[in-house]
Amino acid sequence: MRILRVTPWIYPDAKGGGGYHVHAMSRDQAKRGHDVTVLTTREDASLPQIEETDGYTILRVSPGVTLLGNDISPAVARYLWGVESDDFDVMHAHSHYYFVTNLAALKRRLGDLPLAITNHGLYSQNAPERLFSVYLQTLGRWTFNQADVIFCYTDVDKKRVRELGVRSPIEVVPNGIDTERFTPEGPESDLIDAEGPVVLFVGRFADGKRPWLAVDAFAAVLEEYPDAELYLCGDGALRDDLEAQVAELGIGESVTFLGHVPYDEMPKVYRSGDVLVLPSRAEGVPRTVLEAMASGTAIVTSRLEQTAQIVDSVGQTVEEASGEAFAASLLDSIEAGVSSGGENDAVSEYQWRSTVESTTEYLESIAH
Fold first, then answer.
1. Is residue 189 part of a domain?
2. Is 191 a member of any domain?
3. Residue 281, domain member (yes or no)
4. Domain that includes residue 333, residue range
5. pLDDT at residue 179, as a whole number
6. Can you tell me the distance from the alpha carbon of 339 to that of 168, in angstroms, rounded to the nearest whole number?
7. 225 and 342, same structural domain?
8. Which CATH number characterizes residue 16's domain?
9. Which of 65, 140, 328, 329 is most deeply packed, by most CB within 10 A?
10. HSE on the CB side for 301, CA within 13 Å?
11. Same domain, 301 and 230
12. CA 311 to chain centroid
């Protein structure tokens, strides 16, 4: 099968769960004998325009203009316009709220190349929620409706997409992780050096992730555990604001900004932590939560309908978007000790190999 994957990001060009998902899916489908080409935008001019890696091809084009973290790229439009129906068997786009996926939907509308769209989360981490709600009811819904199949991580997400008035077929394909790498047993990370409890934040420093709530909550944890440490893994537009917040709270000696941590190091990082905190206002099913769960790390997240059914069995969810509320759950988790996430049934339901198998089977079913 010849697959054209259309995506706003890919690992390691871009850090984060979505980019790694695209890379790992392309890599593993290539291992299964499929011909995979990934069309994406190039943020770093030093990166090659065409690259062969891990058995698949990356085609990077100019990003054009960037608006709210979204590349408005005429180069993607030109490439898709030139694609003939017999060049590929199927097109697979990622995240309905990016311009590249809007263009893939237009390509499907004007031609006969089948289209699948993976919903990595209904709401954008970068755009204001009110503005994005308007988008979902208009261009977002139109984009979904051009797809021959939509992949959602959970039944809850499927229901939310249907409630928008989307008519396309929807299949639930859980976002799996490699549970042979993410386990409670194994070495810890040299990046973590702490005597007391270790709180982790893993994710982009973006509005939708609300990392400032993690910092506020940790300041309260320090009052009970003066030897506690907060490690923030990630980077983003809010980095300077977070550093200023840490300085204003006077907790700099207990907070470490690790920046982007190599993916191969993350199993060790999770094992070194006592609890992961993720106070997002919007998510799909975050890889970070599944990875921490499989590593035996306790979890505290905001209460989101699509993730609560996963987290409630092994961690705590927080209704109120305040530092005090998250601090209370962090303290409970620290006092209770690490979770048994690596052994629970929820982890077994989120195997990466199953994600690849199911996604590939559905792509084959719509391919021409």
1. no
2. no
3. yes
4. 198-348
5. 87
6. 39
7. yes
8. 3.40.50.2000
9. 140
10. 33
11. yes
12. 16
pLDDT at 344: 57
Whether 145 and 219 share a structural domain: no
Residues 20 and 83 in one domain: yes
State both tokens at 42.
């190039």
Co-location of 125 and 13 in the same domain: yes
Per-residue tokens: 145: 């409706």
- Encoding tokens for residue 56? 């698949």
Tell me the whole-structure pTM to 2 decimals: 0.85
Q: How high is the pLDDT of residue 349? A: 79
Same domain? For 237 and 282 the reply is: yes
β-strands 198-202, 170-172 pairing: unpaired
Contact 219, 249 (CB under 8 A): yes
Query: Which tokens go with 312?
Result: 């409630």
pLDDT in tens, 138-176: 999 999 999 999 999 989 899 999 999 999 999 999 989
**DSSP secondary structure string for all residues of 188-232:** PPTT---SS-EEEEES--SGGG-HHHHHHHHHHHHHH-TT-EEEE
Count structural domains, the chain.
Answer: 2
Please tell me what DSSP assigns to residue 124: -
> What does the DSSP assignment read for 306-348?
HHHHHHTTTSEEESS-SHHHHHHHHHHHHHH----GGGSHHHH
Gap between the Cα atoms of 199 and 298, Å rounded: 9
* Strands 2-6 vs 275-278: parallel, antiparallel or unpaired: unpaired
Whether residue 198 contacts residue 273, with contact meaning beta carbons closer than 8 Å, is answered with yes
Could you give the CA distance from residue 117 to residue 173 in angstroms, rounded to a whole number? 12
Question: Taking residues 235-244, what's their average pLDDT?
Answer: 95
Q: How far is CA 194 from CA 153, 227, 293, in A?
A: 35, 8, 21
Are 167 and 27 part of one and the same domain? yes
Residues 269 and 167 in one domain: no
18 residue type, one letter: G
Q: Contact, 9 vs 16, CB < 8 A? A: yes
CB 150 within 8 A of CB 144: yes
Residue 184 lies in a domain: no
